[in-house]
Amino acid sequence: MTSPSSNESTPLLHHHRDRSHADPHAEPQVGLRSRLWNAFSLAVVGTGLAWIVFLALSRNRQAELLFQIHVYSMALSFVVITSAISYFQRLSADDRLEGIRHHGLLQTLGVLLMLSGFAAIVWNKLKNGKGHFAQAHSQLGLLAVVLCTAVFVVGIVSLALGRGETSARTVRVLKSVHRLAGYLTFVSVAATIAAVVWSGWARRNLSELEQYGWLAASIAVGGAVVLRAEWGRLFASLIPNDDDNEDEL
Predict the structure, then answer these.
(1) Are 115 and 67 in contact (CB under 8 A)?
(2) Which residues, including other chains, have CB under 8 Å from residue 152's CB and lie 6 or more apart?
(3) Do the beta carbons of residue 78 and residue 49 sit within 8 Å?
């Protein structure tokens, strides 16, 4: 005959074993605090992007056509690339496969817009006989274009290799490099947008208050996106384990 004490201890022991063997990569429970932060950070990102796009579209009408294309393309590229990252952050496991597709489409559009804007400003400089990459904005912009293109290529390669016979560990490392480098690239993009306030365009087209607003919006968008990242899980993806299908950003 089994004693009551042994009957009561059994579920506790099983519960203890379940917790000790819990999957470290399992989906975390989303609490009220996390949901509030998610909503607040997205509101900050949306408001900042709206302000930057408003100024770019409304204060650029007197510029030459090529310069207008540069400003419009880069502003829209910033919106699309930010959306690509923000969309993919904090997705549930069930939504990640679809999230990868949307992220890839948005990133493709963002890179195309960025390259279009870059080509337009280079062409404009050549046409008018002006020097290249003489300001912090243009120097950061060149870095952002190079990094964004490289990260985009790494993302495509990691997806292509994941469908082949490449080892899961190699694919996992490539994905992790893509994610980490992606955030570094995004910081360079946000810094490029922020550096606009020290450009001739900002001095000619924006009031002092609008310049401060542009700078604050750029920093707010960049900071919110970076802080939204789940850095613990991101770095944990670099550690070898049995689950090589992690796709969190």
Answers:
(1) no
(2) 107, 108, 111
(3) yes
> Which CATH number does the domain 33-236 belong to among 3.40.50.1000, 3.40.50.720, 1.20.1540.10, 1.20.120.1770?
1.20.120.1770
Calpha distance 115→109 (Å, rounded) = 10
Reduced to 3 states (helix: H, G, I; strand: E, B; else coil), residue 64 is coil
Tens-place pLDDT, residues 26-53: 445 557 888 898 899 999 999 999 999 9
Give, in degrees to the nearest 5, the angle at Cα 185 between 181 and 189.
170
Higher pLDDT, 200 or 46: 46
In the numeric block, which tokens belong to residue 142? 């060149």
What are the DSSP E strand ranges found in the chain? none
d(CA 74, CA 100): 23
Q: What is the pLDDT of residue 241?
A: 63
What 8-state DSSP symbol labels residue 164? T
Domain residue limits, the chain: 33-236
Please give the Cα distance from 145 to 150 (Å, whole number): 9
